[in-house]
Amino acid sequence: MNLKEALEGRRSVRRYSDRPVDREVIVSLLEAAETAPSAGNLRAREYYVVTSPELRSALSVAAFGQEHVARAPVVVVVCADPARSGMRYGDRGQLYSIQDAAAATTCLLLAAHDLGLGSCWIGAFDEMVARDILDLPGRLLPTAMVSIGWPDERPAPPPSRDMTEAIHWIEG
Ligand SMILES: Cc1cc2nc3c(=O)[nH]c(=O)nc-3n(C[C@H](O)[C@H](O)[C@H](O)COP(=O)(O)O)c2cc1C
Question: Domain named Nitroreductase: which ranges (predicted)?
Answer without folding.
Answer: 64-150
